[in-house]
Structure formats: structure tokens, C-alpha cells
Amino acid sequence: MQKIKKVCVYCASSGKIDTKYFEATKTLAKALAKNNTTVVYGGGARGLMGQLADTVLEEKGRIIGIMPHFMKEVEFHHKDVNEFIFTADMHERKKQFMVGVDALITLPGGCGTLEELMEAITLKRLGIFTKPIVILNVDGYYDNLLSMLETAISEGFLGEVHRDIWTVFTDPARVIEAIQSSAPWSSDALKFAQV
Prior knowledge:
With 195 residues, the protein is of the alpha/beta class. The protein is built from seven helices and seven strands; from the N terminus they run βαβαβαβαβαβαβα. It has a seven-stranded parallel beta sheet, with helices on both faces. It is globular and about 45 Å long. The chain starts with 5 loop residues before the first strand and ends in a 15-residue tail after the last helix.
């Protein structure tokens, strides 16, 4: 099995969410730290982002925050992460999220998390990004999105092969297994991107 050295985690900045999402984030962060996997994330100090960073640091893991300058100015950034990269804008931030990672992990989140996930799925469909994209479906949070993606397949907007773009898992402690069990993806995906 390939060693998972570095991952990007997409997740929420909201703190007004159920504790089950914080617990799942904590479990996932511990699993990544135990595996000596460097975590890249949005750099926030609140919500699931804050929980992710705090737990990785408590577990003596390595975490890198990436955030546009304008967000630093309103003090959203976590001041204790191992390394911080400040970008010119949100577009550059999303590019940096994918640099040198072995996988993308999506925890529950709002519009920013959903937008990041859908862009990653699109880039993988085109063969620009080829690493695993794993979605942590805590207590059915992503059921509706996954149903929409299935509808896109059944209605011909995506092909059957595109189902291999993402992997869904429900146990945050098994994140490494979820990454390693993901179907391989080719940089030639552009050849079958069209349905």
C-alpha cells in the first residue's frame, strides 16, 4: 500500500453545528496524526477547521494552513499551526490545497466546502487532478449530494465510470483505509470526460 504522506481536508468554519461533527473531525484528525500524515486545510481557528487543527497539534502531528490575506485581516486564521501560506485570493488558495497531496478529504461543511469538493470532482473528471477524493458522510450529511450525483449519472450528465471519482466512508477512524481503497484514476480521463 502507498504511504499517505500529505492530505488536504475540506471542512466547515461554523461552530453552530452538532457536536457529532466535531467528534468525527477529532477522530479523523487523530487517525491522520497517528499515520504521520501532514494535513493541509483552510487555516481557520473556528468550527471544524479549528477542531481539526487543535487535534492534529495535540497529537503532535503536522498541519499547514492556507488562507487568502483578506481573511487573515479579520483574524480567522489559526495562530498555532506548523506552517501558514497566505494567498492573493480564494482561487489561489484552492490551487495550493492540491499541491503535493496524496488525497482530498471532505468533512461536512457549507457552501465553501461544497464548492471546493465540486471543483475537485470536476478537475478529476478532466484528469487534471487524479488523487483520491474521499467524502466523510457523517450521519447521512452528504446523502442528498450523493443522490444528486447518482441522478447526474442516471440522467446521462455523468458516465458510470465517473462514480469512481469519489469514495464515500462513514467511519472517520478508517480514513487511511478509505483513501487506499479508492479506485485509481488516470490523467487520460479527459478522453472519457464527455458522456
